[in-house]
Amino acid sequence: MTWPLKEISSNTAVASDSVKVTALICALNEVDSLPHVLTKLPTWVDEVLLVDGHSTDGTVEIAKKIRPDMKILCQPGRGKGDALKYGVRQASGDIIITLDADGANNPDDMPKFVEPLLNGYDVAKGSRLVYGRPTDMRRHRWVGNKILVLTINLLYGTRFTDICSGYNAFWKKAFLCLDLANDSFQMEQEMLVRATKAGLKIVEIPHRAESRIGGKSKVSSVRQGFIDWVTVIVGRFKR
Q1: Is 70 helix (H, G, I), strand (E, B) or coil?
Q2: Which of the following CATH numbers is that of domain 21-237: 3.40.50.720, 3.30.930.10, 3.30.2310.20, 3.90.550.10?
Q3: Low-confidence ranges of the chain (pLDDT < 50)
């Protein structure tokens, strides 16, 4: 597909002739919400890749029905980090955009993530908190996010506003160079820590967090928040 560099909108081209974009979605029992995500993906995406984490509710079947052209992979291991790493390795795109399968990330925002990568950035990191606390985010999660942000900014000299959004974009080659180890949710924090230490160019992209459409969250926010916090601190002192 031929994509002019400067024409950026939800319905037009977003890259140069030689750049391909993969939309990567990791799902586990998201049969209620995944259809909403798939039907809103822009037409300029070269590859739609779903990594399924052994769903038992018909997630894969509904995905095949809605997007028969998409590539569907069965996750070999467990955990969101494992699914993301596997998906990136299997993706054909030069640029990878990751979206949550629960409908919290609006695909209409995708051009905002691609544009900075085409203009010199390595990673475009989503931030839900620029607009304040999302309506469906409980107060303890809001406070936990603030603590995480304060910790990473103090330790690494950064100015992030959110490090837990699953809405991100990056060059595949940059991601692979980070050699990420974590297989669970904290891999996203590990990615940000290693990218910062490696001197990669990172930009935050504000986006509004939509409410989960269906299904249930697969993570305990308190337990995972503590693990994320430890990941950020330990990462500061690891090579």
Answers
A1: coil
A2: 3.90.550.10
A3: 1-15
CA distance 208 to 172: 25
Q: pTM here?
A: 0.86
Task: Enter the tokens of residue 234.
Answer: 């330990």
What ranges do the domains of the chain cover?
Answer: 21-237
CA distance linking residue 15 with residue 119, whole number of Å: 10
Q: Which residue has the tokens 């290693």?
A: 194
CB–CB of 48/25 below 8 Å? yes
Angle at 28 (CA atoms; ends 23, 30), nearest 5 degrees: 80
Compute CA 1 distance to the chain's CA centroid, rounded to the nearest angstrom. 24
- Cα dist from 4 to 86, 113, 153, 170, whole Å: 30, 16, 36, 19
Q: Residues 17, 3: contact at Cβ < 8 Å?
A: yes
